[in-house]
Each structure stands twice: as C-alpha cells, then as structure tokens.
Specification:
The protein is mainly alpha-helical. It is built from 16 helices and 2 strands.
Amino acid sequence: MAAWVSVSDWSGVGSPLSGSVNFVGAANYAELVSGGLATRDFGIALRNNVWYVLLVVPTQTFLSLFLAVLVNQRIMARGVFRTAFYFPSVTSSVAITVLWLFLFSASGAVNKILSHLGVTGPNWFHDPTGVVAALLGLFGIDGSRTLTGRFLGVTAWEWLSGPSFAMTAFIVMAVFTTSGTFMLIFLSALQSLSPSVDEAAMIDGAGTWTRFWRVTVPQLKPTFFTVITLGLIGCWQVFDQIYTGTQGDPGKTTLTPAYLSYQAAFSNQKWGRGSAIAFVLFAIIIALTLLQRWVLRDKDDVRARRAERRRRRQSRRRQRSSAQAVTAEGIMEGAGR
C-alpha cells in the first residue's frame, strides 16, 4: 500500500485504491532531488541524520563493548552495575526527552556544570550553529563564503559544519539510552566464548590488550554485525525524540528523514512525498546494512569458499578433459578397424 502511495497522487482523502487516484510514476521521488524547498528540506534532513549516525553508532558500539567487558569482570556488586547501565534503555524515550530538555536548557544543569569549569554553555535547543563550525570559528575559520557548492540544496559548508548543539544533545541522549541494551548483547557474546583460546594465547605470552584485540574481538564479529545493524536502523529511524523535543527546530537542524516523512504526509497532506521519503530511507538502511556486512565478512571463510570453487572448477575441467580423451581414443580405434 505504501509503495503504491509513493507513486500516486493520493491526497489522503478516501481510499488510495479508488479510481480517482492516478499513477504519477517517480514524480514524488523526483521532487526530492529536482530542486526547490522539498529538495532542500530533504537534503537538510539527510545531513542531520548522517552526522547523527556517524557519531552515535561508533560511540554506542564501543561504549557498550567497554561496559560489557567491565561488568564481565569479577567485581563486587556487578549485578547492580548491569542494572544501572541497562536502566536507561527501558525508560520511556518521551520521558527522557523531556528530562533532556530541562538538563540542556539555557539555565539547566549542563550549563551550570560548564560554568563551574569556566565555560559559557550554548543555548542548546535554540542555537542552529553546527558544532564543527563553532569550533572552527574559535580559530577564525569560516567556510560559508568559499564552500558554496550544493548537494540536494545544501551547501558543502553546511554539510561539513557538523550537528547543531540541539542535535548534539540528542546524540548524547541516544548513546545514553541505547548503550545498555547493546552492553547486554556483548555481555552474552563474551560469556559464550570458550576460555581455552584465551588461555592458549596467555601461555604463548600474549598480554591482556593483545589477547583482547587479537583473540576476543575477532570472535565477536557476528555480535558487532548485530549491534551495528540495530544501531544503524535505530539511528536512521529516529523520530520520537524529535517529535517530542524540537520538531525539527532550531532552523531545521534537528529535522530527520523520518520526521520529515511524517511532516510531509500528516501536516502538509503530501502523502506521496512522505511515502517516497520513507522508501528512500528504507533503501539507505538496506544499502548500509549490506555494506557493513561486506566489511565485517569473515575473510578466511571467503578465501576458503573461493578455494573450494576453484577446486570444483578444476575438477570439472579434468573430467571434461578425460571425457574428451576417451572420445578421441574411441574415434581412433574405430578408424583403425
């Protein structure tokens, strides 16, 4: 149904399968890349979400692995630590978003802490400045006049200026609320590993870091694939924090494709465009999942499969050569008679 809506002119009134609804082909998709306000909004949403993914997925992955290794040690009250680390993951995202709005307000706890450190905190949810642009501005660097090339209606400087302070607050919140869940996944994987391999490496004289990096981490590749895949899906579908917190403000710097799809369909009654954005988002998630599956593939297993395919091809060639030789021999014997 959603696929049909994305290629039709359905206005949201009546059934999308009624005779009054016309097929418009890729027109709704073309609006996203052909220029104009729709293209710029889509480009801004992609820019925001790209920074969100680049900062959240690696951070939550390595932080959750660190927490899993930490609570996997024989320490006192490790059950309490596991519960404490996991608790934010089971708390309502709406409730945490409201809490975040208070913590990161202009007079909130975060700016109070920064003031004690001699730093003037920004007006987090009202400042559209990118974090990277703000840091470069401290050194007098401003690329807004030189990096003017555009992609999807967004200049190169806007792409490189980083997430806004508001989106940075959401990035911190995402890491805070999801690391506990992924910690449990890594913890389960760590506890399922056989200690014999680690003990053998220890006997060979490998240090703690070498054993972890060379022995433990390679065995966690399937877990990394699971965690990164779930992280990518969650980051590209971020919606409830934006809807509850900022609704794309300030200056559309917290606008995401998921929220833009909702806004186009339910607020602007552009149901075809909203569905098209959703399917583009789906394609992005599938492409990134396949990419990271290729990156995290087991190279030894790939080489073994290639060697097995070569062996089979060589075996088939030898069989064909043997069959041709037998046929030629039969022909020669027949000619001799």
